[in-house]
Write a sequence for this structure.
């Protein structure tokens, strides 16, 4: 049980660091928008159809 | 019927507006949609049409100032006001209108990201704010807003005001409090559990003491930091002499914390620190979720500003009119209001004949004629020719602001929102305090040393853990399924109040009717076929920005020299002949014949004629929403009194009332509407109001339940208890049914919480319960409550005709 003498201060230290990080994250606006990132991931920029569209548009622009 | 590929509105002229999107030729309803689709296709972003999950807004629904107007934002002083430098570039935040789904964010971010010099584009879907960072001196704010308009969105610079700053700060502090409670509770729980004999058989007394103090140190910030607002709320309730949910929670947390301190010092009794953390986490968590849900619904409804144009033309003597921002306007300035433009401020007409559409303020659907020397109000629409007005009041001095103040009053009169939860808490709190006192007295007579522990165990075991979950979880689940039905609930007491309604008050224009005139019928009078007459009439209407013009739709031919005779009609040259459209007497004048008789007295008829005589009749109606009769029937079947209160003075109101067979009062000012409502409430009636206009806003705020139409003004939505996003009146009866189910489930939850507490009570009262068993019992009881509430998330299957789908266009 002597390990507890070390583990209790360690727990305090870890929770202190965690709180510091959490406050920093909140204050720097990381939690301000909880909806958009979840939606953004759904749009696949590597979607071949999307790539084809962009390439085609570029080709049309070049032709002009 | 073909629907527009972009906005899904019916295409009136197939083949006229076409564009190639993703290799297919698609039909559009208007040049606006066509242009937007072409822009999207030219940027290679056609996938947008695959990604989106609903139709886009028709561009003409949005305020879209001309590019010349947008140039005002490139004035150096305004650029400095709306953008700020970041490194070598500039940053700005815009508020975007017309966002319908997440694909809009994708489209905007990709399209603006393609512009040279643009470094960062980020759209927040929760508040529709677009954050931009760019590094190109030639690229101005006006150009960026123009780009957004080309994509079919409206935008204006957004500046934080004190209210939105305060809200953001509150949100962050609520999240911090929640995080602190969560992180510290895990630790406190571990320290506390280590002291339980069930878990630990060989703990030395010294370590026991260390663990007690460790738990104490971990719990203290939860009590004083995380639960600070809770204690302040409880104190306020106490001073106002009533029992509230805050009070019962604060009492439980305070007592458990106090008992924990006593145990930490004396080493006797049970450690209750983990209970403190658990309560705090549950309570703060549910409140944070509620806060987020509420905030999301208030997007873009920050009142006055959105109802007025962003810029206006100020006339300076001896110089050309200059375009200025509304905020720069001062009383005494002279302002030019173009035909079809919105009046930017209250004022007096100096020159010009006005036809004013005051529907926004009064609900009156007929345009009002005004001449020089007469007053005009901010927010009204000028349907006549250009006007010159002298400004008498701007911003908060306008009549529109007066309406806003009126509804703030109305809102203040509304009973406290959390009343329901409070009532339940009062019953629970009252009875558990009474029982605790009773058993405390009995025990102090039997065994004084145990009395305190029995009282505490009793209070904690019967504490509002399940109760605090019973109501919020059921409300959250019900709210989520209502949202799927298209009804967005903004305030928690809607579900409860819906169950007590006995009177339904409806607005006419925009609520029972669609709020936009539609062409119902064309009657040809011989000389030309109906289709040709319609083309000509549409050509005459095309240059006019008027709700009626929208009814006629676009035209394949072009009219020249169109001018409007206020209150009478339009005159112009189409296909080489002079035509008039409008009032029969005015039109017949052209041919010098007597005015023909109206085909029927029903609805509004416009006559088209040329120099030879009348050509065709057009019937224009503000059509009743198809679901309106069903709603009225439903209300009547439930025995409610149904009443129409409208600002409209026209005979159309009587027609609608007759069609639905309900009582109606017309020509009411917002003040009169409000007093009519107050009379109803004074009779002891519980009133549900469904409305859409700014003039309905006070009514919505003062009603027991106010539901705004999704297509309504922002002002009405901001003050309503719920918003019918789908504009589908048929979903209201289903929402009422769900509200009834929600109430049943809340009652079940409360009953279960009460049952659990009654079962556990004897054990606590006779000192038979250990903390481990109490924790287990509490968790099971809470879980049961949550699972029961989640049943509300399962909506009953909608019948086929009710399924709200939008036809995906196939070109």
């Amino acid at each position: 049980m002597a390990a507890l003498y070390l583990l209790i201060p360690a727990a305090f230290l870890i929770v202190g660091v965690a709180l510091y990080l959490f406050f920093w994250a909140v204050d720097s606006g990381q939690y301000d928008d909880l909806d958009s990132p979840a939606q953004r991931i759904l749009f696949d920029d590597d979607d071949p159809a999307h790539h084809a569209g962009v390439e085609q548009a570029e080709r049309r622009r070049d032709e002009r | 019927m073909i629907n527009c590929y972009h906005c899904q509105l019916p295409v009136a002229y197939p083949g006229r507006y076409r564009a190639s999107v993703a290799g297919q030729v698609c039909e559009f309803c208007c040049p606006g949609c066509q242009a937007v689709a072409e822009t999207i296709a030219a940027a290679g972003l056609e996938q947008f049409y695959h990604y989106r999950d609903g139709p886009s807004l028709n561009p003409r629904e949005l305020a879209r100032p001309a590019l010349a107007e947008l140039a005002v934002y490139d004035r150096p002083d305004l650029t400095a006001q709306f953008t700020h430098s970041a490194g070598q570039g500039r940053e700005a935040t815009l508020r975007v209108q017309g966002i319908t789904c997440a694909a809009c964010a994708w489209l905007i971010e990709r399209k603006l990201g393609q512009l040279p010099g643009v470094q960062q584009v980020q759209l927040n879907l929760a508040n529709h704010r677009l954050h931009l960072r760019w590094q190109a001196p030639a690229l101005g704010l006006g150009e960026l807003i123009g780009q957004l308009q080309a994509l079919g969105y409206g935008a204006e610079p957004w500046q934080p005001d004190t209210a939105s700053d305060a809200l953001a700060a509150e949100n962050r502090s609520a999240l911090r409090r929640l995080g602190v409670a969560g992180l510290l509770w895990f630790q406190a729980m571990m320290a506390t559990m280590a002291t339980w004999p069930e878990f630990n058989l060989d703990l030395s007394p010294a370590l026991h003491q260390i663990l007690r103090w460790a738990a104490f140190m971990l719990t203290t910030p939860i009590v004083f930091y995380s639960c600070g607002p809770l204690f302040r709320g409880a104190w306020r309730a106490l001073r106002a002499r009533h029992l509230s949910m805050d009070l019962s929670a604060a009492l439980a947390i305070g007592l458990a914390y106090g008992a924990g301190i006593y145990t930490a010092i004396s080493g006797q009794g049970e450690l209750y620190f983990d209970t403190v953390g658990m309560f705090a986490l549950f309570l703060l968590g549910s409140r944070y979720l509620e806060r987020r849900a509420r905030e999301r619904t208030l997007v873009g409804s920050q009142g006055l500003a959105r109802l007025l144009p962003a810029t206006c033309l100020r006339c300076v003597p001896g110089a050309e009119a200059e375009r200025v921002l509304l905020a720069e306007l001062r009383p005494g300035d002279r302002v030019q209001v173009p035909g079809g433009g919105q009046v930017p401020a209250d004022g007096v007409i100096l020159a010009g004949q006005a036809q004013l559409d005051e529907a926004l303020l009064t609900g009156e659907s007929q345009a009002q004629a005004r001449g020089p020397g007469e007053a005009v109000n901010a927010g009204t629409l000028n349907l006549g020719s250009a006007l010159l007005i002298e400004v008498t009041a701007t911003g908060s001095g306008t009549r529109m602001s007066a309406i806003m103040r009126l509804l703030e009053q109305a809102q203040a009169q509304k009973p406290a929102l959390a009343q329901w939860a409070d009532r339940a808490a009062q019953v629970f709190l009252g009875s558990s305090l009474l029982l605790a006192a009773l058993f405390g007295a009995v025990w102090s007579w039997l065994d004084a040393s145990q009395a305190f522990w029995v009282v505490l165990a009793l209070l904690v075991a019967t504490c509002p853990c399940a109760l605090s979950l019973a109501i919020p979880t059921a409300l959250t689940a019900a709210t989520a399924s209502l949202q799927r039905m298209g009804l967005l609930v903004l305030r928690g007491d809607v579900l409860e109040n819906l169950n007590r309604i006995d009177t339904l008050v409806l607005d006419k224009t925009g609520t029972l009717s669609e709020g936009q005139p539609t062409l119902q019928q064309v009657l040809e009078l011989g000389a030309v076929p109906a289709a040709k007459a319609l083309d000509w009439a549409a050509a005459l209407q095309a240059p006019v920005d008027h709700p009626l013009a929208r009814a006629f739709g676009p035209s394949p031919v072009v009219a020249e020299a169109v001018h409007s005779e206020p209150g009478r009609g339009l005159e112009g040259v189409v296909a080489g002949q002079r035509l008039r459209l409008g009032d029969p007497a005015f039109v017949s004048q052209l041919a010098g014949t007597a005015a023909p008789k109206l085909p029927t007295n029903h609805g509004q008829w416009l006559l088209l004629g040329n120099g030879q005589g009348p050509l065709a009749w057009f019937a224009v109606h503000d059509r009743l929403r198809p679901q309106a009769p069903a709603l009225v029937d439903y209300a009547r079947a439930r025995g409610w009194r149904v009443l129409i209160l409208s600002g409209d003075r026209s005979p159309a109101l009587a027609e609608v009332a007759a069609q639905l067979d309900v009582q109606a009062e017309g020509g009411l000012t917002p003040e009169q509407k409000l007093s009519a409502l107050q009379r109803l409430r004074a009779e002891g009636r519980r009133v549900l109001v469904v409305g859409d206009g700014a003039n309905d806003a006070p009514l919505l705020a003062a009603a027991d339940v106010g539901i705004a139409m999704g297509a309504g003004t922002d002002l009405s939505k901001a003050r309503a208890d719920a918003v019918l996003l789908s504009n589908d009146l048929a979903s209201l009866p289903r929402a009422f049914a769900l509200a009834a189910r929600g109430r049943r489930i809340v009652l079940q939850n409360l009953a279960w919480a009460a049952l659990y507490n009654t079962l556990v009570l004897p054990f606590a009262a006779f000192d038979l319960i250990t903390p481990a068993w109490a924790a287990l019992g509490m968790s099971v009881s809470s879980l049961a409550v949550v699972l029961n509430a989640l049943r509300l998330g399962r909506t009953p299957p909608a019948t086929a005709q009710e399924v709200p789908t939008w036809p995906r266009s196939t070109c």
Confidence is low (pLDDT under 50) at residues 299-305, 410-418, 797-811 of chain B.
